[in-house]
Amino acid sequence: MKTRICISLLATTVALLASCSSSGTGRAPMNQAPAESLASPMLLALNGQKMASGLPTGVIVSWQRETDPRAQGYYLYRDTQDILSADPQLRTNDGNLISQPDSGDTVTFYDEFFPEVGETYYYRVSVVDIYDEESDLSNQLSITIMEQAVDGFNPTSGFFGDSVTILGSNFGIYHPDTDSVLFPTDSDEMLSATIASWQETEIEVTIPHGAITGRIQVVISDTVAQSDDEFVILSPYLTELLPDHAAVGQIIEIYGSNLGDLPSGDDRVTFPGGVDVLHDDLDVSFWTDALLRVKVPESTANEGQITVTVGGVTTNGVFFSTHPRIDKVEPRLVSPGSFSYIGIYGINFGLQSQGRLWIVDLSPTSPLPPVDVDDQYIDSWNEAIIIARIPQAEYGSLPAIRVERDGLPSNDVAIGILPPLTVTFVRPHPGVTLTEPIDIEVQPVAGMERVEFYLFSSGTPVAVDYSGPPFTFHFDPSQYCNGTYTVLARAWRMQESTDGTVCFDVLSRPGDINGDGFVDEMDVRMLPQFFGVCVGEGGYHLYRDPNQDGKIDERDVSAIGYAYYHPASGS
Questions:
Q1: Where are the beta strands (DSSP E) in 481-531?
Q2: CATH class of the domain at 149-233
C-alpha cells in the first residue's frame, strides 16, 4: 500500500505533574456547604486513547476515588493552558457530572475528543457532594500528544521469518486496526509484518516473506515514522525486471539480491502460468547473485508474477506481462471493404475487451496513420485466433497486422492490399456481332479465384472457370439463334464477389429476323417494322439486315427469300 507521511496524532503520555496546593490561587471559589466540604481528589494518570477509526479520540484520565459517602460525582476540567479556576466552560463530559462509582480505589474516565499533535492538555478534577457542593480543584496533570519515532532495530539484518525488534519512542498502545510495521517491497507498496509484541519503546515483528532491503516504517493511525538506516534482507529477493513486459522468446534481465553465484539442484525461475525454467536450461544465459538473464518460455501466461527459487527459498514475485505474438496471417493478401475474412494466429491475444487490432504502415518515410480495425469488423477473438475483416481505408505502401493487448503490442506481420475486385471483359467488345466461336474472357485481378458465367439467368452458371487466369467461357454462335445476348460474369476472391456484364449480337442464320431458328414468312412479316433503320441507329442489328448493306429496306426481304429455311415445310 502507499503510505502517507503526516504528523502523528497519537503518541506517548508526557505526564507533567503540576501540583496545585489546596490553598493556591489555582482553584475556583466555592459555595459554603452545610457541612465541611470534601477534600479535593488526586489526579493519578493521563493516557492517550485510540479507537478503531485510526484517529486519536481522547484521553483516559484516572484519579483517586473519594470514599466519603457524601460524594456523588466529579467534574473534570480540561484546557490547553494552566487551569486556574473551576470554569464551567472547561468541564468535560458536555459539562455533566461524572457519577461516583460504587466501589474501587480509583475512578477512570475516557475524555472523548480529538487531540491535536504537539498540543499540551491540562487536567484538574473536583468532587461534588450530595449538597451539590464542589470541592477545591485537584492537582494538575498535563499530557502532550507526541509523534512516534524509530531510532533503529536489532538485529540489522535477517532472513524471512526471523524476528527483529524496532527501537524507538512514543509507540503507545497497539491497536491492530490502526497500527503496523511495514517493510519495503520491489513495488511502491509496503509489506506488513506480523506483530509479536508492541511496547512504548520496542516493537518485535517477524520479517515478512517478500520484503527487500530498505527502511522500516512504523505506522500509527495512518501516520508514519521511518528508520534512518536500511534493514538488510538476507533471503533471496527480486527488485526489478528489465523489461517488465516482453514477447515469448525474448531475453529479459531479472535483478535482485542473494540469488547465488553458483545455482544448483532445483534452483529455477518461474514465469506466469507456473512455467519453470531450471538454472541449467538453455533458456538461462546468465546467473549471478544479483542478475539473471532468461528467455521468456513458451506457454507463459499473459501476465502474472515472476519468482526465483534458490536453495528451496522462493523470492517475492515481480509482475510481468507477455506481449501478444502473431505467428501467421492467412491469407496474407487482403481485400479492404469486402466480406472476406482473414485469420490471425498466435498467442497471448487476451480477450477482445483487452485488445485492439491495427493495420500499421511500416514505410520508412512518411508512414500513414494506423488503421483501427474496430469491433464491427471482428468476427471472433480468443487467446490464439482472431478472425476479422479489413475495413476500407487508405493504407500505406508497407501495411502490416499488429495486435495489442492491454497496451502491449505484438510483432508486425506484413500483408498485401489487394486491388478492388472488378469484372472487365477482354472480349468480346460490347455490341459486337458474333458469327464465329470465341472465348469470352474476363480480365484477371489479383487474388481472383474463379469466374462464373451466366447466360440466360443468374441462378445457374453455364460455365465456371477455376483454372484462370485467363478466366474464359467458350461461346459458339452456331449453337444459338440470332439475337442480342447478355453474359454475366461473377468473379470470386475468397468470400468476396462482384459481377459484370457484356452485351453482344449473334448472327448464326442470315434472314432469321425474329430469332426463332427459322427463316420463313414470320421473318418477312416482321422485317418491315425496321425499314429505314441504318447502322448506328437504335434498333439496327446485323441480323435484321440480311443483305448487310447497312440499311434495312425492301431489298432485305429478297435476301430472306434466298435464305429461306424451314425444315418442317421441307424447304
A1: 483-493, 496-506
A2: mainly beta
